[in-house]
DNA sequence: CCAATTTGACCGCG
DNA sequence: CGCGGTCAAATTGG
């Protein structure tokens, strides 16, 4: 317990430091007087945005690590992205995959530009994409950095043009079950075989990765709250929303960017939620309250509030837990 | 028996 | 047409 706790703390601080770095970089960028260093003065707006995303992402992940996941995705993000202004549409942030495992010290990030961000070319596949380099420890069986917090399923391997080693392709294990479209590529470096290039594409929308781990041991008083949090988490993954009047308008909640986050402030499962992040439609908030009228299947009354400019009307909606 | 990997086929794009 | 990426049938492994 102590160990995992310590490890968690490490991860957490790593994440925060990561975010801080990005923040400082952005700060430096914004802070520079135009006169100074006129040469390399500007990052592209894309890079700035990516930095921003990185910061937000770090916060999200850190919070995630503290509370367990309570991040939810809206269903229509891709359409929103496609429809939106190409510059502002970069989707959502990658949760930066902190690679850890047994030996944190032998496996480390290379710093100094070892992470580069790339809001890929304006093709159809505009998913967040970023790369990292990981040095593998001697101890772990020659093969790979292939474990971060997520579970990946290999779906291909290719020999690459000028590369000594093949490139392997992974996707999230829960692609089908949870509509999680995150993928990653692993490419062993030509010159230094202990280094692997990891390319991540897309963000995890699965309720996987870091679970709310074993907070159970804490005060008995919090069990109810924890349970309710779990309930919300479950809701965030198996959720169908249907409008009160309109059966036809029902939609499933989770998956894909813009993020919506729940904040369960009361112990009873009620809470508020709203848009998180810098892209997508904002000003979409809601208030959740329990509807105790039914026994077994939890039903929440949700009061949506939309920005006036939004197309959709404010209304009273009902969250339905999706069977199971 | 189920789930993950392997591996050649397939396919879109430049 | 070749390259990089993905699919899916066959195979492996638990």
Automatic annotation (TrEMBL):
GO terms for molecular function: DNA-binding transcription factor activity; transcription cis-regulatory region binding. Pfam families: WRKY. Residues 141-204 form the WRKY domain. It is found in: Nucleus. Residues 89-117 are annotated as: Disordered. InterPro entries: WRKY_dom (IPR003657), WRKY_dom_sf (IPR036576), WRKY_plant (IPR044810). One of its GO terms (cellular component) is nucleus. GO terms for biological process: leaf senescence; response to hydrogen peroxide; response to ozone; response to salicylic acid. Keywords: DNA-binding, Nucleus, Transcription, Transcription regulation. It comes from the Eukaryota. Belongs to the WRKY group III family. This is Probable WRKY transcription factor 41. It comes from Raphanus sativus. The gene is LOC108829855.
């Amino acid at each position: 317990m102590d160990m995992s706790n310590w490890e968690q703390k490490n991860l957490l601080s790593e994440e925060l430091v990561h975010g801080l770095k990005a923040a400082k970089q952005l700060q430096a960028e914004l802070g520079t007087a135009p006169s100074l260093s006129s040469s390399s003065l500007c990052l592209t707006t894309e890079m700035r945005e990516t930095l921003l995303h990185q910061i937000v992402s770090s916060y999200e992940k850190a919070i995630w690590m503290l509370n367990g996941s309570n991040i939810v995705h809206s269903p229509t993000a891709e359409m929103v992205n496609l429809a939106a202004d190409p510059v502002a549409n970069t989707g959502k942030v990658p949760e930066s995959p902190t690679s850890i495992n047994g030996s944190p010290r032998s496996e480390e990030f290379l710093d100094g530009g070892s992470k580069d961000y790339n809001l890929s070319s304006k093709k159809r596949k505009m998913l967040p994409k970023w790369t990292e380099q990981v040095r593998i420890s001697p101890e772990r069986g020659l093969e790979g950095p292939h474990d971060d917090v997520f579970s990946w399923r290999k779906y291909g391997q290719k020999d690459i043009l000028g590369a000594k080693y093949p490139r392997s392709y992974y996707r999230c294990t829960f692609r089908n079950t949870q509509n999680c479209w995150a993928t990653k590529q692993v490419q062993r470096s030509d010159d230094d075989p202990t280094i692997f290039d990891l390319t991540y594409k897309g963000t995890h929308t699965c309720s996987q990765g870091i679970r709310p781990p074993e907070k159970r041991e804490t005060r008995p008083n919090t069990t109810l709250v924890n349970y309710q949090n779990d309930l919300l988490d479950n809701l965030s993954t198996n959720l169908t929303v249907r409008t009160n009047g309109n059966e036809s308008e029902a939609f499933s909640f989770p998956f894909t960017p813009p993020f919506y986050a729940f904040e369960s402030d009361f112990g009873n499962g009620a809470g508020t939620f709203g848009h998180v992040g810098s892209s997508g439609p904002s000003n979409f908030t809601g208030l959740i309250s329990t509807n105790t009228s039914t026994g077994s299947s939890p039903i929440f009354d949700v009061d949506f509030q939309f920005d006036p400019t939004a197309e959709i009307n404010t209304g009273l909606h009902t969250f339905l837990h999706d069977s199971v």
